[in-house]
Design goal:
Helix content is 15%, strand content 30%. By secondary structure, the protein is an alpha+beta fold. The strands form 2 sheets. A 4-stranded mixed sheet has the order 2-3-1-4. The longest helix is centred in the N-terminal third of the chain and has 14 residues.
Length: 122
């Protein structure tokens, strides 16, 4: 049985998809894993799709995640999350978990101006 784990990051240009995968890669290397990373960002400057593949373990030969081989999917954009489903294991009996988390920023922007959010006291 292989000890290799695969993480697929997806999003659109400007969301930090590549940065997040690089941070994960640096952290994994720091913990002694062999890590391979691949990125695809064709039209990312125009808000297009961006995906990165990170594979890590004791010895990794390729950064490419095959069909049905992704262990974790991290999506920064809801619509982009639907694209890579063929890379996730979908055999009968396989179970997945979808967790939706939204970051709440400490400011809001409207009409070209940004304002700090007031802290809730409850």
């Amino acid at each position: 049985m292989s000890d290799i784990k695969s993480v697929l990051f997806v999003g659109v240009g400007g969301q930090g998809t590549i940065l997040a995968s690089k941070i994960l890669t640096i952290g994994l290397i720091g913990h002694g894993y062999d890590v391979k990373m691949s990125e695809v960002h064709g039209m990312s400057q125009r808000g297009g799709s961006v995906s990165t593949q990170v594979r890590f373990g004791s010895q990794v030969y390729s950064p490419i995640i095959g069909e049905g081989s992704a262990d974790i999917l991290v999506s920064f954009e809801e619509m982009e999350a639907a694209r890579p489903f063929r890379r996730l294991p979908v055999s009968p009996g396989d179970r997945g978990r979808i967790e939706e988390t939204r970051a709440r920023l400490g400011f809001r922007c409207d009409e070209g101006r940004c304002h700090r959010r007031k802290r809730r006291t409850d």
